[in-house]
Amino acid sequence: MKFLVVGLGNFGAALSMKLTSMGHEVIGVDINMSKVEGLKDRITHTVAMDLTDLQNLNSLPLKEMDVVVVAIGEDFAASVLVTALLKQMKVKKLIGRAINDTHRTVIEALGVDELLLPEQDSAEKVAKRLTIPQVENSYEICDESAMLELRIPQRFYYQRLSETGFTRSSNLKVVAYVHVENEKSLLGHARKVKKLELDVHPDIELKPGDHLILIGNVKELKRILAR
Question: Are 89 and 171 in the same domain?
């Protein structure tokens, strides 16, 4: 996959390096030349550029990018402007990052496809989620293995777990099933509630909106999902 990461602060740099180490092509962009120089040997491509300038933005291969992440944190104005420009240019998938409630409100209003929150989203977790879109949460165990919360892909709806391939792999184990139900709060508002089932039978029928908790090799999970 091809990624553009705008902003090479702590989060943007860590995300870019992780995606590069996973074998993806990454263009990391920052206005700060020293940051770019320090990362040029650790990210596929690095560019020192001000992307609040539309001419600079147009010079990048945006149509080739699978995902664009605006990781600018501290410069509120630059973050909002770059996000707005990228939204206008209709990139395939636009992800924003917010560092406070006000920032979050503005970025959400711009209509990003996904929003990252620093208190919830580590670079490691985001990298896995971006390369496997069905992954909701992840916890890395070692370089190749992780515990993952997987949204059940549409093509597996109403199939038995044993029919999917998840139970036939020696490098991957289903450890729990998460059933998502709609419940009403005391005030009558609808909310989604997750219920965990640890006794996962191979004949369980996979339902829309539900999740699987798996542990094992990430590449094996990708292989099953790509079939």
Answer: no
Nearest to 156 by CA among 121, 207, 113: 207
- Is 107 found in the same domain as 6? yes
**pTM of the predicted model, to two decimals?**
0.69
Is there a domain that residue 127 lies in?
Answer: no
Q: Is the pLDDT of residue 57 over 90?
A: yes
Q: Is the pLDDT of residue 68 over 80?
A: yes
Q: Mutual orientation of helices 76-88 and 101-109 as an angle, nearest 10°?
A: 20
Domain co-membership, 10 together with 88: yes
- Residue 126 inside a domain? The answer is no
